[in-house]
Amino acid sequence: MTDSPIVKSPCPSRRLGSGPGNHFFGYYNKTVWDRTGRYVLAQRVPFPDARLTPDLQAEIGFFDLDDGDRFHVVDVTSAWNWQMGSQLQWLDGLEGRQLIHNCRTDRTDGAYPGLGSVIHDIDRKTRRELPMPVYSVSPDSRFALCVDYNRLYITHETIGYPWRTRPSEMPLAPAGDGIHNLDLATGQSRLIISYADLRNFHPVASMEKAIHWVSHIEISPDSRRCLFLHRWTERVEDETCFLHRLITANADGSGMRLLEDSDHPLPQLAEDFDPSAVGTYDYEKSEYQISHPMWCADGRIIVWGPHDGSIHYHRYTDEDGGRVEVIGDGILTENGHMSFSPTDMRWMISDTYPDPQTHERILFLYDTQKNVRHDVGSFYADPSLKKENRCDLHPRWSRDGKSICIDSVHETQRQMYVIDVSGLIDRAS
Prior knowledge:
4-stranded antiparallel beta sheet, Methylamine Dehydrogenase, Chain H, 29 strands, 5-stranded mixed beta sheet
């Protein structure tokens, strides 16, 4: 056993693909590998960064790891962003190789005209369009939870989609919009939690004049409950003015529970505040930030956020008045994109945001049994990239718990890399 709680444990890494183009996946909350481990999802674009427009297209496809990483193009989409991609993901609850991603559409039968999603059956070569864009898909692939990406482009531009025409109005907390449940088989949807519902759920004074939205929706492993961040602000231009709550609910919107609330005073609302002075990562490093919640395999929730006056990685039980425990106290001291191994909850993967001097980001494995952080890699982040086009590592587990996939720009292009952590895990056992 090591004497230090933080050790350098470099692991083998390789870039996926060698052809032209830039490849990325996006968020940290789902695996890129299919059930066989042979095919790896990705979006491909001809540039490493760009200001998004509603017509900017990304190719949707997958690498074949048994065929020299050959990239197969399935479709193109202009409904995407640099942080989350197009919400591309495998549909594990359906037969064969089926995937879903968001798209722009001419359909008008959904809650958000102009935006939808597409299911591709790779083996049957079929394409089926749905009338709403998805945010999170249930593990059983029966339904998705959906929100308005036009609203997100106003409230949290980094995870929204550029609009063709700015919406004429955006109500602060409407009763007619919020989280929708979309049946993936029929395309039918229903509003399950409105923004008015959220404003009226354990309300606080800071909500009254604020615009409300929802992000980081995740569905539990058994597809019965969901978690999400309810956020609100009077100043959308400055992310450090965002207020946060971690809430869980049943998949039909019933049974809401408030697990954490970081409502706090906002001196930034002063008239002389300069939003341009806010650094790219100031929001992520805020002491009040609740971010990156994820379900654990056992139904608990891991999140970065404050609790009882201090901010840590915290693990919650999804119960009223449930237990909250600190993960990595004194060792894991900053925000990151974390998730537990799908095969062994002893191991948690996460990352750091760039160091302000070196611009290096650390990818690490945390051993919850021995209370040791293993730094498995360091990756340079171009400081010229800003909030909307930055490239976070967003580490994602392979299904067998032996590899990690990341997005990175340390070789000037935006590419995907696979890090083999099996040797490190075997040595530590």
